[in-house]
Amino acid sequence: MTSRRARGVLAGDQSSKGSAAGVSSHIVIIGAGQAGLSAAEALRKRGHDGPVTLIGEEDAPPYQRPPLSKGYLSGELPADRLWLKPPAFYDMAKITLRTGVRVTALDRAAKRVITADGEAIGYDRLILATGGAARRPAIPGADLPGVHVLRTLAEADALSAALQGARRLAIIGAGYIGLEVAASARKRGLEVSVLEAADRPMSRTASPLLGGWFGALHRGYGVDLQVSAGVAAITGAQRADGVRLSDGERIEADVVLIAAGLNPGVSLAEAAGLDCADGVLVDAHARTSDRDIFAIGDMARFDSELYGRSLRLESVQNAIEQAKAAAAAICGAPAPYDPVPWFWSDQYAIKLQIAGLIEGADQMVRRGDPEEGAFALFHLKDGVLIACEAVNSAPEFMTAQRMIAARARPDPDRLRDVTVAMREFLS
Amino acid sequence: MGSDVFMAKITYIEASGAEHAVDVEDGLTVMEGAIRNLVPGIDADCGGACACATCHVYVDSDWADRTGPRSSMEESMLDFASDVRDNSRLSCQIKVSEALDGLIVRLPEQQG
Ligand SMILES: Cc1cc2nc3c(=O)[nH]c(=O)nc-3n(C[C@H](O)[C@H](O)[C@H](O)COP(=O)(O)OP(=O)(O)OC[C@H]3O[C@@H](n4cnc5c(N)ncnc54)[C@H](O)[C@@H]3O)c2cc1C
Ligand code: FES
Q1: What are the φ/ψ torsions at residue B61 (nearest 5 degrees)?
Q2: Over the stretch A229-256, which tens digit does the pLDDT of each residue have?
């Protein structure tokens, strides 16, 4: 496919008010992950009739990432259960899926994207959904064989193959992915060390109480979890054989996983001069500083009215809902995106569900008993509920989503009282 | 697709009345059976993690015994789906097996 434009292919190209993308315009989406696929699907649901081209660098068709650190890594879920859609979907929905194709440049003036092979693909509207790459901090030894990161299916396969026959895994970073991998690796019978520089697990996004509780959970399953443990180097001559901490202690390992977060994939956008600041900056309709270019998912930073600051979220929900907002705007039916963020994590038999964001909270209310393995932590700011961390507590999680959206001011004493059903907070 | 894999016949009936009778591989979930066969009306945003409640279905009364009971997590998630009834289930929590050959599920007007 070359830079052929589809504009006006259908009789009566219905350019909608204020948005020049008619129903028959060509929409190009870069990044065939959760957000890109969701955008393609939402465009069709909204009645976009013109060509949709979904370009992805990975060889695999769009797939779910969450199982990569959970069921897929522990071996419970085969690869063919990761696909977001069956192959027939793309034909049925007339979505041109181009996997194994990397876009290397945006030519905004000519409204086309350039691939690694030098192919130029023209667009009327462009959606950036490039996600990001696992961060590899500049630790000495980080490029040794035997050192892994986890973002893609290929990286999950490489990690899984390395764990086959290995005895000890060292994980650098106790965020969600680090901890989920720890749980999956324990299921596979490996000895696991988790090394975290902060003073508790999940320090970036979770409350101290929750982080501490998960720390204890992992220790209970035999994980050697070390906090306030700075990593000085990954050791090994030909391949990684362990990790040395800043205090000199050495942890032996056959396999090392660096789980240190994500670098948002902004290089194309930056090079093309779009406004970026830890993510591509977008408005409530996922529109970048170029009106014909949208950005969605892990790579996009938007202004949240609910939280009064800009947010870049890394979650399936955000990828799906922001994709829908972009599609709505492109189809001339804009609906501003201002979500209550939510997220889940599965570790051992524990389901963690988080609604909202805890940053800025000044009061915490506990409901239920952490000792019993099911409890919820509500976080308020100036009396308004802004977040809920729910451990095996779905009603608290589901209710909190609605309360946060409504900027509810629950009575802390009732919230704490497990005899008051969560439903009562919705009336 | 291996011929030795058991395929259960499952009929999904959309709120509009449109029927989709498809074969679903043993071991998959009823949610996955819909996604794989392009049956519309199930979003399954969380991919089966019992975290989103967008895979809501109604199990035909004749089948309620064979699909088994809801787990407590499913029960609580379902509480917040729209138009929940006695025979509501999250389809990602129903595993397909020979015992479900012939299963009929109906889809709600909307998810979430
Ligand atoms: C191991 C793991 C576990 C997770 N668990 C959870 C969870 O439990 N719950 C949850 O809510 N979220 C979870 N997440 C986060 C969630 O998966 C992401 O937020 C989501 O995938 C983001 O979707 P996206 O489309 O923005 O990015 P991605 O899914 O990363 O898709 C981006 C795609 O763009 C492609 N791309 C990038 N640059 C180019 C280019 N130049 N040309 C062509 N293609 C390009 C990439 O190859 C990639 O395939 C997890 C993530 C990981 C890695
Ligand atoms: S797919 Fe999310 S709860 Fe079933």
Answers
A1: -55, -35
A2: 999 999 999 999 999 999 999 999 999 9
- Considering only CA atoms, which of B65, B58, B1 is closest in space to residue B27? B1
Does this model's pTM top 0.90? My answer is yes
Q: Does the beta carbon of A41 sit less than 6 angstroms from any atom of ligand 1?
A: no
* Residue from the list A85, A86, A395 with its beta carbon closest to the beta carbon of B76: A395
Supply the pLDDT for residue A5: 36
Nearest-atom index, ligand 1, CA of A317: 11
> Is residue B79 within 8 angstroms of chain A, CB to CB?
yes
3-class secondary structure, A371: helix
Which structural domain range is residue A235 located in? 140-258
Q: Which of B69, B51, B9, B93 is nearest to A317 (CA)?
A: B51
Atom 4 in ligand 1: which residue has the minimum CA distance?
A66
In the prediction, which pLDDT does A7 show? 35
Distance, in Å, from the CA atom of A347 to the CA atom of B64, rounded to the nearest integer, reads 30
Chains A & B: contacts with CB separation below 8 Å: 47
Q: For residue A339, is it within any domain?
A: no
The domain spanning residue A274 has which CATH number?
3.50.50.60
Task: Tell me, yes or no, if B21 comes closer than 8 A to chain A by beta carbon.
Answer: no
Enter the ipTM. 0.94
pLDDT of the residue at A9: 33
CA of B109 to the centre of ligand 2 (A): 17
Tell whether A269 and A250 lie within a shared domain: no
Question: Do A146 and A170 touch, CB atoms closer than 8 A?
Answer: no
For chain B, the first-to-last Cα distance in angstroms comes to 33
Interface contact B51, partner A, CB < 8 A: yes
Q: Which residues pair with A83 in a beta bridge?
A: A63
Query: What does the pLDDT look like over A281-299, one tens digit per residue?
Result: 999 999 999 999 999 999 9
**Residue spans per domain, chain B:** 7-106
Residues A211 and A206: their CA atoms lie apart, in Å, by 6
**pLDDT for residue A3:** 37
Chain mean position to CA A361:
23
Q: Note the CATH number of domain B7-106.
A: 3.10.20.30
Domain count, chain A: 3
